[in-house]
Design brief:
heterodimer, A: alpha+beta, 3-stranded antiparallel beta sheet, 8 helices, globular, B: alpha+beta, two-stranded antiparallel ribbon, 2 helices, about 10% strand
Chain lengths: ~325, ~100
């Protein structure tokens, strides 16, 4: 079993791709990997809010109410709206102004985050985030037949909430037919291929405080994603710590008692949505968010808590060595 | 010495009843099939609803961190089976980015 392994930087993150054997008539894994790299580059060029010449920036600056948009931008907006709907408004794609107001104006790719432990010591009291009842994402509408997106002019869209997961899912759709594959777009991961059912991939979960391995998942299909406070965290001009996961109700960074959440999902977009929604919900509600499909919570204390199906202990035990467990 | 009596051969049916009988049977069957075909072509097409049901299940196995106990969400996935699955590439890491 051979796999082509390619890594590169894009979307402000590290992208890694492992592609197995092609089905008869398909291009070799090397060619598929190269095509994927070009796709991710184009994805980033069109959908980055940090690039002034991106289609997203042009869309956000457009004063018309109904704006012609490419299929990729329409897909990104639909993914963002679906994430908002799924999370009850917690994952809000219209917080571009708010996130710039707290200091996240340019790309932070390659910029080391402020020490998370110090930020936690000085953070405000923990409380769950809440949706904004007056959120503007509900006013967006995508018309695929007309090839347009409508929204109130001036309301800016940010694909950051679902962008990398969407990229992973779109790449996975292009890799159907390969024996197995894994697409990692900055920690938002999608897995597929029939051989992965027999030989699952190992996915390490990084601990947000120590950077060490917090857990290992063996995954045969679907998506997995992690949201955390440890990378995009900084001190503002007043010396206060801020990060990129905002409470939609206040527009301020959310300090909920969780510093990292890893979620499983049928797709990478679903996993990304659930991980963000769970982190913003705080520990109590996060267990409910992840109850069905499973995930890992990392508390402020550093404690790692498997939830949902991952917390279920095996019902079949392997035979114990002779003498072990004797009463 | 007397000869054994010869067995009597069955009498062949005459040509006319066989011919007309076969022709009549053919005509009856031909008429019946023609009627069925014409009736089928004038009947209203039936609407057949085809549904493709895909049930997807994500099976995950959690391998413990050092010092932790193994847990599994898959039904009857033993630790031994999980350990025997070969992993030939460096693991992928999920973390905040």
């Amino acid at each position: 079993m051979s796999e082509h392994d390619v890594s590169f930087d894009a979307m402000g993150s590290h992208v890694r791709l492992l592609v197995g054997e092609p089905a008869p008539g398909m291009e070799p894994a090397e060619a598929a990997a190269e095509r994927t790299r070009r796709f991710v580059t184009e994805f980033d060029a069109k959908l980055s809010r940090f690039k002034a010449d991106s289609e997203l920036s042009a869309f956000n600056a457009d004063r018309r109410e109904r704006v012609p948009a490419s299929a990729l931008l329409r897909a990104a907006v639909k993914a963002g709206l679906a994430a908002a709907e799924r999370s009850g408004g917690l994952v809000d794609p219209t917080l571009a102004d708010a996130i710039e107001a707290v200091g996240y104006v340019g790309s932070r790719a390659g910029v080391a985050g402020a020490p998370l432990a110090d930020a936690l010591a000085g953070a405000p009291p923990r409380r769950p985030a809440a949706a904004n009842p007056a959120a503007r994402w509900r006013e967006f509408a995508v018309d695929d037949e007309a090839g347009t997106i409508s929204r109130p002019p001036g309301v800016r869209f940010d694909t950051g909430g679902a962008g990398k997961g969407l990229a992973a899912d779109l790449i996975a759709a292009q890799l159907r037919g390969y024996s197995r594959f894994i697409v990692d777009c900055g920690g938002d991961i999608r897995i597929g291929g029939p051989d992965a059912l027999i030989h699952p991939y190992e996915v390490f979960v990084e601990h947000p405080l120590t950077g060490e391995r917090a857990h290992v998942l063996r995954l045969s299909s679907g998506g997995v994603a992690t949201s955390g406070l440890n990378v995009r965290i900084w001190r503002d001009a007043d010396g206060r710590y801020a990060h990129h996961l905002l409470d939609p109700a206040s527009g301020e960074p959310a300090w909920t008692g969780l510093i990292g959440v890893t979620a499983l999902g049928e797709t990478a977009v679903e996993a990304e949505t659930l991980s963000k929604a769970a982190l913003l919900s705080g520990p109590e509600r996060a267990r409910e968010v992840l109850a069905e499909i499973g995930g890992l919570l990392v508390h402020d204390s550093g404690r790692v808590e498997p939830v949902g199906p991952l917390s279920v202990r095996p019902r079949v035990r392997l035979p114990q060595p002779a003498g072990a467990g004797a009463l | 010495m007397t000869e054994a009596p010869r067995s009597r051969r069955p009498r062949r049916p005459s040509f006319a009843p066989v011919f007309w009988g076969s022709l009549a049977l053919f005509a009856v069957l031909f008429t019946l099939l023609t009627y069925q075909l014409s009736a089928a072509s004038t009947a209203e097409p039936r609407h057949v609803l085809v549904r493709k049901v895909i049930k997807r299940r994500v099976v995950t196995t959690v391998v413990p961190s050092p010092g932790e106990e193994a847990v599994s969400s898959g039904p009857v996935v033993s630790s031994a089976a999980a350990e025997s699955a070969p992993v030939e590439v460096a693991p992928v890491t999920t973390g905040a980015s």
